[in-house]
Structure formats: C-alpha cells, structure tokens
Amino acid sequence: MKNLKLLLLLTLAILSSCDLDEDPPYLDETAYNNIGSIFGTLDGVYAALTTYDSQEKRIFVLNGFSGFFNTRKQSQVSPINNVNNANLFSLKPLANDGDATAMWSGYYRAIARANTLIANVQNYDPDGVTAQDLIFKDVVGQAYFVRAWSYFSLVRLFGDVPLLVDLPSYDTVMNELIPAKGIYSQIIADASKAVTMMNTTSANDNPDYYYPKGYAANVLLAKVYMTMATNSDIVPDDILGSNFWQMAFDEAIQVYGEYSLLADYASLFTLAGENSSESIFELQISQIATNSQMGRNYTPNSYKPGLCFGWLTVNADIYDDHEATYPGDSRLEGATYMSEYPNNGNNPQNVGNMIRVYPSRSRGNFRNSHPFFFKYANKDITHSNQYDDKNIIVYRYADLLLMLAEISNELGDSANALNYVTEVLDRSGLANTDYANADQLTFRDKIMKEYRYELLGEGEDAHNNRRRGYNYFLNNIIIPHNTNPNLNFTNLDLILSEDPTQVMFLPIPVRELNTNELID
Amino acid sequence: MAWNVSNESFLQNSDFINNLKLRAGWGQIGNHGIRPYGTISNYGISSGVQYGTPNNGLSIPIILNNLANPDLTWETTEQLNFGLDFSFLNKKISGTIDIYDKTTKDLLQNIPIPTSTGYGNMLINKGDISNKGLELGLNLDLISTDDIELSIGGNIAFNKTKILSLGIPLDDFYIDGDGQQRSFFYGNTISRGQYFRTPANVFVQGEESSLFYGFETNGIYQTEDTDLLSGAVPGDVRIVDQNGDGKIDEIDRTFIGNPNPDFIYGVNLNFRYKRLNMSMLFNGVQGNDIANGNLLTIGDPTGNQANITADAYYNAWRPDAQSNTHPRIGYDTIGDIAITDRIIEDGSFLRLNNLTIGYDIPTDKINLFERFNIFITAQNLFTWTNYSGYNPEISSFSYDGLRNGVDWNGSPDAKTFSLGVNVNF
What we know:
The complex is a heterodimer. By secondary structure, chain A is mostly helical. Chain A is 45% helix and 6% strand. The termini of chain A are far apart. Chain B is mainly β. In chain B, the strands form nine sheets. Chain B has an eleven-stranded antiparallel beta sheet with strand order 1-2-7-8-11-12-21-22-27-28-30, with no helix packed on it. Chain B has a four-stranded antiparallel beta sheet with strand order 15-16-17-20, with no helix packed on it. A three-stranded mixed beta sheet of chain B has the order 26-23-29. At the A-B interface, helix 2, helix 5, strand 2 and helix 20 of A face strand 3, strand 4, strand 5 and strand 6 of B.
C-alpha cells in the first residue's frame, strides 16, 4: 500500500511537472511566411497609413503647410490667431507642432511595419512562378512601395531625416539624420523594386484584392524624378546629370491608359466613388474598422448630426482664382468647396437654418470669410457616427495626366502636353483654349495651377508648391497671396511667411530631438 | 546583524535605559517588473489596429507590437543600513533611528525612444541611482494614569537621491546658459493637448532625480522696456535669455525646480480623559516643488472661452495698467517649447489627515454590551500649504516615473466626516 502511494505520487509529479520554457501566447515571424496570414501582415502595413497620426494629421499638416488653407481648429474667440494659423498655416512651422509631430511618428510607424514585413518574409522564390511565390512577391513589393512613399513624404517635408530599413530592434533605436540625397537613393531603390514586384493585374482577377497595383510605384517614381528635375541638391551622386524629365516621363507613361477618369468628378469623394477606375492608390476605410475620423474632422460644422469639426477652410483668394479661371466649374461648390448648406446638426432649434460662408455671403468675420474644404466631408446628412466608411484616395489618374502634361511640356512635346491636360479638362466640360495658345513658359505656370484646381487638398499641394524651389513658391504662391488687394490681413486673412529658412521645410519634431541621441 | 546593548551586564540593571539595540544590515534585492514574455518579440493583433476592406468590412492585421529587449534583467538594489532602537524611562520614551545608503542598479524603465523607430517607448535597464537617507521615529508616553492618557508620536524621513549613471553618451546640456557635456534624458511629455505638450522633468547624471527643466522668467515686459526679445510684445512674460543670444530657444532652458522633498514627516497624538478620547494624525511634506500645469490654462488671461482665475484677469497686464505679475489678455503658452518657472510652486504642506473624537458610554448597567463607543471622525480636515492647486498631495501620473511632481488636471481631495459607534458584546 505504501509503495502504491509512492508510485501514485511519483506519477503525479511527472505528469504535473512545469516547464519554464513554455511557448508565449504570441505569433512569431512565421506569420509572415504563411499564406493564411500574409495578407494580415500586409494589412498591418497599410493600417499604419490609416492611423490618426498618418491620415487625419497628415492631411491637416500637408494642407496647413501648402499656403492654401486656414483652420478653425482650436479656434475660440480669435481663431485667426490660433496656434495653427499663427504658425503652420502661415508657413512658420514650429518644432513642437503637435500635428507635425504626430504625422512624423505616423510615417515612421508605417516604415517600421514595412521594414518588419520585408525582413520577415523569407519563404518564397522572388523569381518563382508558383501561385504562392507570386503572392509573396507582390506583398513584399507592396511593403517596398509603402516604405518608398513614406520616405518620399518625409524627405520632401523635413529634408534630412533618419533612415531605417531593417527589422526594428532594441539596439538600433538611435539613428542620425541622413542627407536628403541618401533618402532619395533609398526611395528610388525601393520604388524600383516595387515596380517589378507588385502585381499589375490582380485587381481585375479578384474583387477582394484591394491593394494598389504596381503602377502606383511608377507614379511615385515619376514624382521623384520630377522633384529632381528642378533641384539638383537632392540628386544622388550616381545619377547626377540625368535627364530627369525624360526619366519621369518613362515612368508616368507606363501608367497611361491603365486607368480612366470617373465621369462625375464629385463622386470621387463619395462612397460611390470608392476603388474606382480612376483610383491608383487608395486606403481602405470602414466604419467598423474605426480607422478614419476624416468625416468628423473635415465635415463642415453642423452639416450632419454628430461631431463635425470643419477643420479646414480654403483661403478666399484660392477660391476666387479658381472661380475666375473656370467660372461655373462643377468642381467648385459641392465638390471641392462648400459654402452654403442647411444646418442639420445636433441642436434641433437650428436645424434647417442655412449656414453660409464666403462666397455665398460677404466676408464679415474670420469664420465666415472662407469656404469649407469639402472633399473629405461625410456627405450623408443623417450620419452621426464619428467614424466613416469613406476610403482615402492618395494617387489618382487625373494627377498622373497632369503630371504627363507638365513633363511633356518640359520635354518640348507641346502637342501631347495639350492632349493630357485636355483629358482632365474635358471631364469637367472646360475648354483648353488657354493651353492651346500657351508657349512653354505660360503652359508651365498654368499647369502648376491646374494641380490645385483638380487636386486641391488631396495631399500634393505642399509638395507641388515647393517642388520648383523657393523662388517659384515665393513668386507664384506666397507673394500673390500676400499682395492680393481683395484680402484683409487685419483680421480675415493670414499673411504667409516669406522667410526662406521657414517656408521650405518643417523642423524636426522636438520629441525626436529630445529622445534621439544622434540628432543635435 | 544586531547588538542588544541593553542586555549587556553594564546596562542590565539600568533604571534609565530599558532597551537599546544597534542594528546593521546589508542586503540585495531584485525587482523585475517585467511582464511575461517582455523580452521577446510580440507579433500579433493589437487593439485599435484595424484595416478596412472594399465592401466596408473589417480586416484584423498582424503587426510587431513591441521592440523586444532580450538584454532585460532584474534591477537590483543594494542597501547598507544602520539602525538604533531605544526606549528609556520605563518605555515612556521610545524610538528608532535608521540611516541607509541604497544603490539601485540597472534601473528598469519604460523610456521614451525616438518615434523614428516606429515605436514610442521601450523597456530597458538604464542607470544607477543612489538614495541616502535618515529616518527618525519617536514615541512619547507623556501621561498615563487611570483618568488621563496622553501620548505623542512622530516620524521624519530625509532622503536624497542622486543619479549615479544613465548609461547614455554625453551630450550638450545647458544650465543657466552654460553648455556642459552631461549624460541626460527627458521625462515623458505631459499632455497631448494644446497646453503642456512638453516634458517637465529631466534626468541628469550627477543630479537629483527628475528635476524640473524649463525657462526662468523675470516678470512681464512693460511698454517702456527697450530690451524686448524678437517676437515679444509688451505684456508678454519676460523669459530669461540665459545665453544672451537675443532669442529664446531650447538652450535657454535650465533647472527651475525640484520635485524631491527635503523631508516628509508625520505626527500622531492620542489623548484620553476618562471616557472621552481623541486622536489626531498629521502628515506633511517639506521642500518639494510642484509643476502646477493647471496654471497654464487658468493662470493666464488667454482670452478664450476657458475659465481663468480672477487674479489672472484682474491683474492682467494692460497698457494703461501695467502689471509685472500677470501677462496681457490674449497671452497663452500654446506652442511653447518648455514650461516656465511661473508654474513651479512650493508643494510643502502639513495636513491634519485624521481627527477622531469618541466617547465611551457607560455600560455598567447594561449587561449586553461590554463597550459602547460613539465617535466622529474627520479625514483631511485641514491643510496648511501655500500651494495654489487643489491638492498638494498630487496624484497625476502616479504610475509614471518619468512624469514626477506634475499636477495636471488633479482633483481635490474630499473632506470626509463620519459618525459611528463601536460596540463590543
């Protein structure tokens, strides 16, 4: 009996022995090599671009730093003097700008996710042709694309920035600033890989496949070369002296004809216009994914029930110029701008009252002197959720056509330059006469403005305005605004800085300076 | 290790000394505070990380949630301690004295890291810190008769911290405009809102822990002043240009306060007269500074819709009524790159934390009860302090060692009164 008890005890002891090396309840890097979870890892990369930092804040900063906008955010009694208008929106950005700080971390979060994916996906043959090889190759290509896009955004806004391309690791948290040309080298390398690795057809094969095609990387490369065409300071040494307009053309022309313009411009900014034939690079937003408060932040005040902050209003002179150039353009009220609508907000006493701002009324105080920017507004006047369903388009075909027009004009191909811009104007029923009669110089100035008529607020204005250098920015955007006799700089309109040390770049965020031992 | 001196033959028969014990101790303890699997990469889903799909559905992504640090180890504290326990005069006087020298190595910290890594914080072992201190406790049984009892007890503790090393390279650090090569890092940013979007604390090798770092100020710019720095207008706060380069920037920051107290103390008093009894408990802190972040919103006449103090409004600088204490109407600190000494206040206080008065109702004639005591207790009854915030015993960020001594939206401590009975059957 005693022996039996001992035996039982021994058996129990063996069976219940605890293993200190138990497996953690986490996945490991095999998730990146499993066909069942690989798209989950890719969605992690794209989800990084839809965080509040990298989407809502990005749009706020890019537009604030374009010289075209002002804001009602943090506006109380004297909104024209609020911290955003006084600094970022007047092109006097501060190193502790909270929105720019958030945007910075948003871009780098996306880069870290892309780095993680690129480092961890091992289980495929890049030259292979099996279904699995092709899927993994595309996914890795997507990560290269996101990394290139993020660095391109950073380098254009901040200049020299830290460059991280490896699996995030505890022993590489401090990273020095790399000169812009080094960042551009990486962007070209990544985007070139993306062009060869990303699918160009699968979107048609599979309706559930919602990632950009390789053409998005061609657009990105074309934009990179266009930036280099007018600024030799950022050109990597190994390609100095190249014909960048030609290189930009060679990339952009790959995309030509692969997409088509939506017939109805305004529908681009509605749910009906999601993932359309015009969309080249689009972020997937769902209310149940709670990955966008764009509608909350950018819907005009009281346009719908629930929160609508109406953060962005467009400088009155930008509206005036558009209206004067293309009178009656359907892209104005209800598409790009909103200046008159019935109150449908939370206070029942005010519902039905018309809300009017300039140009639907004369300019009185700061808050009613600028039209709302309407593209990212939630158009559903019954919608009361603070999250949205509306996707965010980052690159679209109209942009590519305008790029081709600009590039062709620079290359001296005036006939094709005219054709490309005409395609864009035709959609809105506008005549191309002024372009048809323009010499190269006039065409250039016109096409640089055409971007804003077509693409205002969609994320490229800040870059396009600076792409041709300080003097172009000063003479074509800043001074025309600051000297516009119709504006009232006493209390209705912002004066833009003309200081070359202020207007071209955002300062590196203080938080980065405070924590990064390798940046002074 | 202890030596009970009072047991020695030369003291055994002493009427004066009842107990005298000398103690000495050395020890080493570990604190790991590392959550399970904290040293390995955590791949998986994360709350709040979701992506949409074209039919407005939901995708749950897989991401790398942390920067794993495989080098993490326990932080260890080495302590050398000397103590003395004593009681005299029939134990009417008793007490303890302790002095200690404590060094904590490999401090475990969730430090802010550059967001260019894609992450905001990382758990690391960084630095050694020394704590040296003296603790005294004394109890006096002053009166002890059948009718009256009175005893008083008190304790006081002095502690000095010093950062011995931080394990990070030397860099330019500015004190009073003077650049030095020091090893340092900043605490966590206080708020993500408009105000106080900066760290308050800095951790510098060779200094006390978590000192306040920011701008020194010297009143308000007046209309007749001719030395206004670029960008300043009369009515603005006059920030001291420490290095005299004509502009205010990061390198004009300096030490502006110390959240570490000189000492903390407590006193308790017990009194009984016949059936009436009373006890009081005081606690206090002396010599610490508080960064009162609430002053950033209510202490400046910002001219927006938010509430401000009457003082900030009535004493605001006006061209026709210049003030040297409060800035002009419309002045705010939104966008400021550092805090100023205007929000640093002396946080010393003494608080009557508990007062209880009770009465034992005679129970001789009631067999049911052995004791029937009714009492009234007041908690947090009085606080003596010059601190202008709601409560000098601040609780903001009490979980965060990188935000020390900062009062940010702190709530007042309620006074509590309770009436009760204690019944023994």
